[in-house]
Amino acid sequence: MNSTESNDVNGSPSAKRIKLSQDVPGQNNEALTATLNKVEDFLQPFRLSVEKLREVSARLRKDFIRGLGKHTHRRAPVKMLPTFVRSTPDGTEKGDFLALDLGGTNFRVLHVRVVENLQRVLKMDSKICPISQEIMLGPGEQLFDHIAACLAEFLESLGLKDLTLPLGFTFSFPCEQKDIDKSILVRWTKGFNCSGVEGEDVVKLLREAIHRRGDFDISSVAMVNDTVGTMMSCGYRDQSCEIGMIIGTGTNACYMEEIKNVKRVEGEDGRMCINTEWGGFGDDGSLRDIQTEFDVEVDRSSLNPGVHTFEKMISGMYLGEVVRLVLVKLAQEKLLFGGELSEDLLTQDKFKTKYISQIEDDAAELDQAREILLKLGLPASPEDCEIVRMVCSTISTRSAHLCAAALATIVNRIRTNRGLDHLRTTVGVDGTVYKKHPKFSQRLQDAVHVLAPKCEISFLVSEDGSGKGAAMVTAVAQRLAMQSRLLEDSEGEGEDEEEEEDEEEEEKES
């Protein structure tokens, strides 16, 4: 790998870009240049070469194989969860659907219409229903009765109560999905702790609550992960969309895998969407060589140390905090702010990820950086502002490149699975980091082009994946009337390890 290729992918800002002020009190240009060179050296661990990114992609490929194994999935950091979605839209889907999106202190109910001749998914109406603290911590029956009551009110207001519509259910809590309409809650998160739900099928609990009311009914139910919703909402507009990716508060991706490779599911023919849960990549220590001291500190001070290692290097929940820690260290080293520190800069999570996007916006020049630094109680000389922008750019670029390495793993795998010399595919994408950062999407696309040169990838931004996508999953499930069951886990592991070795050999040969 030559250095030119590395530079093309990294494209990181250099000290040469920085305009040197002629009137910095007590500091000449030579001293300032020396400071900037030290900052460059300081940020070097965040700049990953093409060779290192390829290495990261290869490690993730091995974790994919482990996660898909019937016996090895239990110890795999990347869980590769079967979703029982066995097809992307083919454009013939149509009809009216309900979508239910539960994942926080509010939940949404939507009425969605899929229009075949327009190739569009229309959100007809929606309603947001609050969930009180009492319900979040009370009996599970009370929670599902509340959901059923809100659903009934919504249908009543639209005059749809006499119809029996299919429902797509986005339930954003850790679940083990057994089928398209059977999902077992593993544990509550996000402040919920309703009794009698963990270990139970949430679809069954919802149906029971609806039956207790007796004034309306639903037909089929499809459980939907948000990445799958993203893929499916884009898939109706572009039938070549077989990947869903989210880069927002968290990060995750799904893709269409050959069923014969999904060892936990019966069947040899066709494909199934796999929810990779790639945020857990590195939880076994496999990314220690690229974790900086700042990544280690972000993990240590998080609510879930040792979990979601990859996500903590990439996603919106953590990027601002990585930048804050770097700025603190630069100030302590007298390379920034004249060595001054403010109370805000020393406070966890005070440097918001949205500040990175604002600071890197070329249209704002350095004005945004100056305003943000002043708000944080920091000096804001032009040189300080430029160095802060350099830090933001370096860390957001690393995020884009790590995402590109992971996405390259997926597209290269799909191409190899299908025995293709060249793959053309579309990625449905959602998330605030991808959509709001002015340069993130281009950096990601440029890097994945280098890391997956035999794949031509288009990117399509999702429109309401958790609502429209849930309806599309339900529509496709209806069209296929699919049948698929998880195989029971067995104790032996030798067979999977042989398959893992065989598959790795096949990929090397391709």
UniProtKB/TrEMBL annotation:
Residues 489-510 have a biased composition (Acidic residues). The keyword Hydrolase does not apply. GO terms for cellular component: cytosol; mitochondrion. Residues 242-476 form the Hexokinase C-terminal domain. GO terms for molecular function: ATP binding; D-glucose binding; fructokinase activity; glucokinase activity. Pathway: Carbohydrate metabolism; hexose metabolism; Carbohydrate degradation; glycolysis; D-glyceraldehyde 3-phosphate and glycerone phosphate from D-glucose: step 1/4. It catalyses: D-glucose + ATP = D-glucose 6-phosphate + ADP + H(+); a D-hexose + ATP = a D-hexose 6-phosphate + ADP + H(+). Its EC number is 2.7.1.-. Residues 39-236 form the Hexokinase N-terminal domain. Keywords: ATP-binding, Glycolysis, Kinase, Nucleotide-binding, Transferase. Pfam families: Hexokinase_1, Hexokinase_2. This is Phosphotransferase. Residues 1-26, 484-510 are annotated as: Disordered. One of its GO terms (biological process) is intracellular glucose homeostasis. Residues 1-13 have a biased composition (Polar residues).
